[in-house]
């Protein structure tokens, strides 16, 4: 009983210190900070929730906070995030495919009543939205209506894409002929108001359409349809 009480006090002290430090950081710059919502600990960028974990896993968001502060401090217009799939069912959001930012285990996904892959996609979308909402990124054009399809599975996983990267259907990527490679675009489903931000890494068969990864389609809830209409908004396009 004493050990349990001691752990509770330790967690409370850790959370209090984290909240104090994050509030000081947030007062001077729009970087991530941590919020105690009662049942869980949330990692925010401004008003946007990036991720949330049970209180006993506060070290996860604390580690993510430190890493995201460094990345956001670069003030770039394009950020290279990847989702890595591990053999134990865990998915990891990494930066430039080198530095691990957030690890989503099956237990953490179960806490959110989700799957590790879907939760990784949701949290990476939150990170992208925070980037493009925090910094003044020029919008190339108003959202366009496009035909959307999706692809994935063993036939496609491991194939080389037009930008030189390797395709996996658990990445947030898309094929499109109408924007430069490595552009970042927001795809929105007008039927359910869901949206996802993807990197254009490949080309597809026709103009005026976007062929997204299965994970992106899952997040938009269009997987069962096969073909649907979505709105596409360019958030970043390379100058050359």
Automatic annotation (TrEMBL):
Domain of life: Bacteria
UniProt domain RlpA-like protein double-psi beta-barrel: residue ranges: 147-231
CDD domains found in the cross-reference section: DPBB_RlpA-like
Keyword Lipoprotein: yes
Keywords, comma-separated and alphabetical: Lipoprotein
SUPFAM superfamilies to which the protein is assigned, alphabetical: Barwin-like endoglucanases
Family matches, as Pfam families: DPBB_1
PANTHER family noted in UniProt: ENDOLYTIC PEPTIDOGLYCAN TRANSGLYCOSYLASE RLPA
Name the UniProt record assigns to this protein: Lipoprotein
């Amino acid at each position: 009983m004493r050990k349990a009480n001691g752990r509770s006090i330790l967690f409370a002290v850790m959370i209090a210190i984290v909240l104090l430090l994050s509030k000081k950081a947030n007062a001077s710059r729009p970087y991530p900070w941590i919020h105690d919502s009662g049942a869980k600990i949330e990692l925010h960028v401004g008003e946007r929730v990036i991720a949330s974990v049970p209180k006993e896993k506060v070290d996860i968001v604390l580690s993510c906070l430190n890493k995201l502060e460094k990345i956001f401090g670069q003030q770039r217009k394009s950020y290279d995030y990847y989702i890595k799939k591990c053999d134990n069912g865990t998915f990891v959001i990494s930066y430039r495919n080198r530095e691990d930012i957030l690890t989503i285990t099956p237990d953490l996904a179960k806490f959110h009543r989700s799957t590790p892959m879907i939760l990784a996609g949701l949290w990476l979308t939150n990170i992208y939205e925070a980037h493009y909402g925090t910094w003044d990124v020029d919008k190339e054009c108003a959202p366009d209506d496009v035909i959307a399809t999706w692809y994935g599975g063993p036939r496609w996983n491991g194939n080389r894409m037009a930008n030189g990267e390797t395709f996996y259907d658990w990445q947030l990527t898309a094929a499109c002929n109408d924007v430069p490679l490595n552009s970042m675009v927001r795809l929105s489903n007008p039927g359910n108001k869901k949206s996802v931000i993807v990197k254009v890494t490949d080309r597809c068969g026709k103009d005026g359409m976007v062929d997204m990864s299965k994970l992106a389609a899952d997040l938009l809830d269009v997987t069962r349809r096969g073909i649907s209409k979505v709105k596409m908004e360019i958030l970043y396009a390379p100058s050359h």
